Every structure is written in C-alpha cells, then in structure tokens.
Amino acid sequence: MKLANYVTGRWIDGDGDGQPLLNAVNGELIANITTQGLDFDKILEYGRGNGSTALRQMTFQQRALMLKKLALFLLDKKEKFYQLSYKTGATRMDSWVDIEGGIGNLFSNASLRRKLPDTSFTLDGDFIGLGKEGTFAAQHLLIPKDGVAIHINAFNFPVWGMLEKIAVNLLAGVAAIVKPASITSYLTHAVVKEIIASKILPEGALQLLCGSAGDMLDHTISQDVITFTGSATTGLLLKSNPHLLRENVPFNLEADSLNCIVLGNDVKPDMPEWTLFIKEVKREITSKCGQKCTAIRRIFVPEEKLELVAADLNKALQQTIIGNPINEKVKMGALAGQSQRKEVLSQIQKLLASSQIISGSLDSISLVEADYNKGAFLSPILLLNEKPFQGMEAHEIEAFGPVSTLMPYKNIDEAIALAKLGKGSLCSSIVSTDQEIARKFILGAGNHHGRMMILNRESARESTGHGSPLPMLVHGGPGRAGGGEEMGGLRGIRHYMQRVAVQGSPGMLTSVTSVYQPHAPGKKSNLHPFKKYFEELEIGDQLITDKRKITSEDINRFADLSGDHFYAHIASTNFADTMFEKQVAHGYFIMSAAAGLFVDSYEINPVLLNYGIDELRFTKPVYPGASVFIRFTCKEKISQELKDINPEVPYVKGSDIPKGIVKWYVEIFDETEDPLVGVATILTMVRKKL
Ligand code: NAP
Fold first, then answer.
1. Ligand 1 touching residue 238 (CB < 6 A)
2. CATH 3.90.70.10 fits 39-254+491-497, yes or no
3. C-beta 179 within 6 A of ligand 1
4. How far apart, in Å, are the Cα atoms of 617 and each of 78, 129, 679, 680?
5. Rounded CA gap, 310 and 316, in Å?
6. Residue 233 CB: number of other CB atoms within 10 A?
7. pLDDT of residue 673
8. How far is the CA of 3 from the centre of ligand 1 (A)?
9. SS3 assignment for 84-107
10. Mean pLDDT, to the nearest integer, of 380-394?
11. Ligand 1 atom 9: the closest Cα is on which residue?
C-alpha cells in the first residue's frame, strides 16, 4: 500500500514504488511512501495563495476557536492513533506524550485567545510618543506573513512534532506544509487524514508530504518560515542552502542536544531527593526508548557519591521491562527502526572511547513478546566516564536512544563547567534543596540552556519532568541545540508574523490598530458609554466627566475607611523631609473618586462587571483643594464566545451571557490639565445585544 501526499487540495500518490516503512516491533511492512513527481513550487504557491490567504482573513479569536475545535475532534479519534503508534515501538505512555501531548498543544494555543485581540494582527509593546505635542507617535504591530510554514520534522514524535508546530503557525495566520521524518510518517499521515476529513481548517492551511522534501526549499521566499527538527548534520546541510541564504528565508533549527542533570552535593542517600534523582534519570533514559531530544544524556554527580549513584541507577534500570509495547507490563518498547538501532550502536562505540558500560548490554536483552532480530530493541545503557574533563565524547556525541553517561564533579563550579561543555542544550535539571547551590547552577549555566528545572521534594509533586517541553514555555536551546526557539505561549507566534513599527498621528494609529492610542481624538456622544451594548461601542467613544473637588476631609475619611494611615496622608505630618508639600490624597482614593465620576447610574446597564485595572499609575500628587476630572475612552474590544470562562475571573456566574471584554483608557486630570495626575486601563465585561 502506498500512502498518498495531501497537496494542492488532493491526496496524490508519488511516482514509483517508494520507500517501505516497517513496523519497529516486528519488522512487518506497513506502507510505502514517495513524493516523486510532485511539483513543489506549485505546492508552496497553493499554501500561500489558499491556506495563508484564508487564515489571514480570520481574526485571532476565530483562529484560536478553530484550534480548539480541531483539538476536540482529534481527541475523539485518539484510540485510532494509539493503535498505530504501537508500530513505532512506543508504549501507551510514550504515545500519550506524542498524541495527547500534541493535542494539548492545540488546546493551549487556543487558550491564548484571551490574550489576543479580535483582529488578524496584534500589537507588540506599547504606544510610543515621538513628539512633545502628542501629534506624532509609533506602535509596533505583528502582521501575519504572506508565506507558508514548512516543518521538516524528526521521527521521534510523529504527532506532537506536527501539532505543536502547526498550532502556532495556524494561530498566527499562516498555512503549513508538514514533512514528517519518513520512518514514522504513517502515524502523521493518519492524523492529517482525519484533520483534512474534518474540514475544520480552511483548504490549503495544511499540506502533507510523506517522503523526500525534493527541491522544495529552492522554491521558498522570504515570507516563508522553515522549521527543522532533526540531526545537526542534516540541519547544517539545509540551512546552508544558498537559495535560503540569498533570499533570507527564516530557518529555525533544533538539533542534537546533550542535556544534563546535576545531583546537588547537599543530597544524601536517605533524602527524598536521592530517590527523585534516580527516578528522573531512569525515566529519561527509558521513556520513548531514549528517543527524546530533551532526554538526559549526561549525569553529573558529586565524586564521593559516584559509586552509590551508579549502583542505584543500575538497579533501577535492570528492572525495566522491555518488549512488545502492546503488552501493558512493558515499560520500554523499541527504537523507531533497525536503522536507528544501528545508528545508536555506532554512536555508543564512539562514546566508549572515554567511557565504559556499567549497566545494560549491547547484544543481550530479555524481551517480553518480541524478537530481537525482528524488532529494533536495545537495553538501557549506562556509561561511566570517570574523567569528564579529559574524555570529551560524552559532551559531543548524541546516541539517540536509551543511553546516558554518568560523570563525577568536585564542586558546583565544576558542575557548571561540565554542563557548558555540551556547548548549548535544550534543557538541564538540578536536584537540590540548597537554594545557594540551585541559584549558582541556574545563573552559572543558564546562558547555555533553553529550559532549566530545579527538582526537590517541594516541586516534585507537580513536576512535569525534565524531558517535557510545555506549550507555554520556550523550547529550543543555543549552540549545539540549534539556536532555534519555538512554542513559549505568545512568543511562538512571532516567528510567523512580521514586526513593523508604524509611525503617524495618534488618530491614524488608532484607526489602523483598532486600539485607542493616547492623544487620539475621542468620539463624543449623548449616550453614556456604559449604556451601550458591546456591538454599539466604538473604539474612541469618549466621556469627559464633571469635576470633583478633593478635600482634606475626604482624605481623612478614606484613611479611616481603608486603614491606610501612611504619613503622607496625615495633615499633621511634618513634611519638611518628605517628597510632598503637605497632606496628599491616596492614589487609590483618586482612582475610586474617578470611578465615582465615570460610572453612570444605579440602573442595570450592559456593563456586567469590572474585573480589574491594568497599568495604573499615579503621576502627580493631588493636594486638598484640587479639582479632578476624567477623560474616559473606549480603548479596545475583544469578543467572547458563549461559556468562555475568563481565567482572570473564573468565579463569576453567568458565563453563558453573550458578552465581550471592553478595556477603557482612564486619564485623570486636575484643574491644570497638565500633566495627568493618573492613568489606568480598566477592564470590564459588557453584554452583547444580539
Ligand atoms: P534527521 O535524519 O536529521 O531527519 C530530520 C528530518 O530531516 C526528517 O524529516 C528527514 O526526512 C529530513 N531530511 C533529511 N535529509 C533531508 C534533506 N536533504 N532535505 C530535506 N529534508 C531532509 O533526524 P532524525 O533522525 O529524524 O531525528 C533525530 C535527531 O533529531 C536527533 O539528533 C535529535 O536530537 C534531533 N531532535 C531534536 C529535537 C529538538 O527539538 N531539538 C527534537 C527531536 C529530535 P527523512 O526522514 O525523509 O530523511
């Protein structure tokens, strides 16, 4: 059977017989794949012209809801994927990370809608005033690129590898072309088949290539983004493609990484941290058969504890049940294929130049319901390198399987230096209860890592583990790890959007950005803005309030009511050595008085609630006798779907009321009107009319 490619709106078989894909457990043929004969230029054009164009016309809110719908759809189909995943050699637990972890990325990116506007682009940073009179200003914007995201993925996570990446480019408004690694592409194919059938994504938003990438990269343009996950050798080959260099096509590289763990020298065998350390290392060596880019490859322990750690790790690893992953007792399945086993064995041979095997065997292994000669099985291998500053292999060679090297260190400075010998890693962990040791390690080795974890009895209960990249955290590392970066919540979408600094008058910037910019003209109306429904409100709707005189009695009463008797608010204070001339009003009183001025009536109106204040600043003291008034402007509107619980106010009832979030820009003036005495952004929920 040949697996078709999904390109230019159709499932198309490549020419010829193609490459056979084999079951990692028993060597049986699963399918053949090939991309021979495909027109890659046409495929790229189709993605840009159809998928990306359609996505750019959608708002962040619509794109995020599309991701949520897709996540729910795929969750419903997950059993099908689990069954196929066994063939890659993965246990149910390994597949959970791949399948449900991948779907989790869709959910997580969908949730980012609460931080994003209801437009196709977003603002980056704050408004920047560029003139004294407030007529010239700037705002950075992020606008979706015109191109496509091309994802060339590694074989180890055929589902997660695709979903964690497309979740981000789809949210950003850019279509994807996914080229999974051939060896496990049948699983990616199965997921894409469901996605396409669901019709949840606009046509062209996702294309799939099973087989070689052909000459695709030679047809890319600078609006495309290439992400590559795989070996450093292939990465270097691809990123040095002259066409990419000439056209300045963004290329995000994630490659080999010699991640490490450090046992703090405060940890003794009778402490819970000792057990946590042994468990963490064992899990990282055996889960996914060690085929994780984040797996622990280097283990650093205080030299006086080397022997004890070696004995405990050996004992733990010996207990691993290896074999056919369909059997529930099996804790470690197979490598993705026999070619992979050959590759890992050859890397171990190189590591042996400066180390010896202290646990596991290269040729004998006891298997449950599996045949060593048919499947790609390997026992967990623990190596010992007693002179880690002399034998460099462990710091330079990645055996992409259940392989790790134990090494001694004398003090924390040595542990930092050893961690850095990896020349840049995705992640590193330290197990310690000593705050000084942990701090020294993080600050000393942090510049060589993308993510670091401090593990001890306090964090263990909820720890997500050394090897788990999370959608809200950045994944990637400097140097050897490729220098790329992905995920990281909102940080991720920036790779697929162009940052542009837009300059102009505040009024013009308001109309371009759909967010009210300071100094822009407001829109006056006879109707109080709180009487308008969500749909009726316009950005720039503005109210100038009456004035209120602030008295010493007001300040005294606020001090008594709130209990805030800070000396500056007390009239009898000797102000000679203070920042103030005399008794000054509490900033919070001025803010409360502001609400008294801009809030309209006792009657129920479309404003459902006020749930907070952002960026509140008190910029000038208010003394008794001053008269304050407010300029109150509708700053931004974000529509919400029904039952969309706002995590900032999850406790309110009535989440099924049609509504949206409205942000109001509040400027507080005194009678001089210059400068402002305070400024804030108020957050409200406003009912929709519908
Ligand atoms: P690989 O052999 O370098 O392949 C990676 C991807 O590149 C595959 O899709 C492969 O396709 C493709 N490829 C190979 N040659 C190509 C070419 N000339 N033009 C276009 N595409 C080409 O790596 P792998 O064996 O799949 O993955 C294992 C490596 O990935 C390990 O070193 C691991 O550390 C690294 N990795 C890193 C991360 C990370 O986030 N940093 C994550 C996972 C894995 P074919 O399969 O069709 O050859």
1. yes
2. no
3. yes
4. 50, 17, 5, 6
5. 10
6. 10
7. 78
8. 20
9. HHHHHCCCHHHHHHHHHHHHHHHH
10. 97
11. 181
Q: Which of 258, 254, 357, 347 is nearest to 310 (CA)?
A: 357
Give tens-digit pLDDT for 358-374: 999 998 899 999 999 99
Q: Whose CA is nearest to atom 31 of ligand 1?
A: 231
154 CB near ligand 1 (under 6 Å): yes
Q: Identify residue 14 by its one-letter amino acid code.
A: G
Query: In angstroms, what is the C-alpha Rg of the chain?
Result: 30
**Going by DSSP bridges, is the β-strand pair 627-639/659-669 parallel, antiparallel, or unpaired?**
antiparallel
Q: What is the pLDDT of residues 135-183, one digit of tens each?
A: 999 999 999 999 999 999 999 999 999 999 999 999 999 999 999 999 9
**Catalytic residue, candidates 100, 164, 254, 273:** 254
Measured distance CA(346)–CA(321) in Å, rounded: 24
For the chain, percent of residues with pLDDT exceeding 70: 98
Mean pLDDT on 7-24: 96
The predicted-structure confidence for 229-268, as pLDDT tens digits, reads as follows 999 999 999 999 999 999 999 999 999 899 999 999 999 9
635-656: pLDDT as tens digits: 999 988 877 666 676 666 666 7
Closest CA to 166 of 206, 195, 199: 206
61 lines ligand 1 (CB under 6 A): no
Helix (H) or strand (E) holding 608: strand 607-618
The angle at the Cα of 304, spanning 299 to 306, to the nearest 5 degrees, equals: 35
634 is catalytic: no
| 631 pLDDT tier (thresholds 50, 70, 90) | very high
**Mean pLDDT for the stretch of residues 63-69:** 96
Provide the 8-state DSSP code for 381: E
What letter does residue 266 receive in the DSSP assignment? Answer: T
Residue 382 zone, left/alpha/beta (φ > 0; ψ -120 to 50; rest)? beta
Checking if the pLDDT of 216 tops 70, the result is yes
Rounded Cα distance, 583 and 605, in Å:
38
β 449-455/497-504 pair status: unpaired
Is 254 catalytic? The answer is yes
Under a CB-based contact definition with an 8 Å cutoff, are residues 243 and 38 in contact?
no
Give the Cα separation of 16 and 36 in Å (integer): 7
Fold held by 259-481: Aldehyde Dehydrogenase; Chain A, domain 2 (3.40.309)
Domain ranges for the chain, please list them. Answer: 39-254+491-497, 259-481, 522-687
Query: Among 1.10.1200.120, 1.10.760.10, 3.10.129.10, 3.90.930.12, what is the CATH number of 522-687?
Result: 3.10.129.10
Instruction: Round the average pLDDT of the chain to a whole number and report it.
Output: 95
CA pair distance 70, 201, nearest whole angstrom? 8
Pocket lining: 164 vs ligand 1, CB cutoff 6 Å: no
Å from CA of 610 to ligand 1 middle: 50
CA distance 227 to 486: 9
Minimum-distance ligand 1 atom for the alpha carbon of 257:
34
CB 445 within 8 A of CB 422: no
